[in-house]
Description:
By secondary structure, the protein is an alpha/beta fold. It has helices at 12-22, 35-43, 66-70, 85-92, 117-125, 141-144, 159-169, 182-204, 208-229, 240-251, 256-265, 270-277, 282-297, 302-312, 317-325, 338-345; strands at residues 4-8, 27-31, 60-63, 75-78, 101-104, 109-110, 115-116, 132-136, 150-155, 174-179.
Amino acid sequence: MSDKVTVLVAGSWGTALASVLAANHPEVYLWTRNPEQAAEINGSHTNQQYLPGIDLPVNIVATTNMETAVAGSKAVVIVAPSSGMRQVTQALKPYWKEDMLCVHATKGFETESMKRMSTVISEELGIQEGKVVVLSGPSHAEEVVRRCPTTVVVASPDDKAAAAAQELFINNDFRVYTNRDLIGVELAGALKNIIALGAGLSDGLGFGDNAKAALLTRGLAEISRVGVEMGANPLTFAGLAGIGDLVVTATSQHSRNWRAGFMLGQGKPLQEVLDSMGMVVEGIRTTQAAYAISAQLNVQMPITDQIYHVLFQGRSPRSAVEALMGRDRKTEMEAISQETWEQWHS
Length: 346
């Protein structure tokens, strides 16, 4: 098999991962729908819209032709927004071969169905969900593309597939661990975006470090609680995909979710925030999905509930914080149901 690798699509994270792969493989194809973007990447070796000021490796080839992008590849890395994952995977399907490795690096849910990305991909490609590998962890595109030291995790119950993904990406700047907990890694990567919105909102209100530390801690408990209910290994949430990704996304101005929350906390309307971002803010769609999932599973997600009310029901950020602070008194260990943990360990 050739050493060609394909990345779909050419946003900031897709371009950054293509850059990592270009350090390991001689031929990296980057698919985009935008002919002007493809011409810029091939001609100037830049992607100014998403990664301004960055020179890309010359062995990244951009194309708008899906067949050209995928033909002969040993691996396809899908980095489409969650809202476009099904459409992109449908476009991939005619050129998909069973011996290709499938990796995705998208952190979100399909809002309408509340399905994880690996489920969407497996449905469209007609492969077992366990054959899909998810890449996640604390990894801002702006730092990855500058080859700042970064550590991530690739997860699949298929040990061979996870090891192949690890080998695909790992180098001196980009360390990769494996994990068998596909569900936990996907859920952690998606749900932490909600808490990052909340952290930005808290900062926008000027509430300081104490409030943000509490938000992150209680947010991790919330993520773990719903994750375990959905079949995840609780230890995953103490790792790179869990607390690692939560910290980096909720504390950095590189984070779109933090920036969106910050502007909301300053009183800007949601549509104005979205218009100013210019890129997808996954946490907004994820909040919709998680709000529905918590109701479906009857699992308490109080932070998610309040952020949902701010985003979609007109609640002021300050009153949302007051609602959280005014909740019934609890012991700290009530954060995660002991019955759920004991059930997982039995």
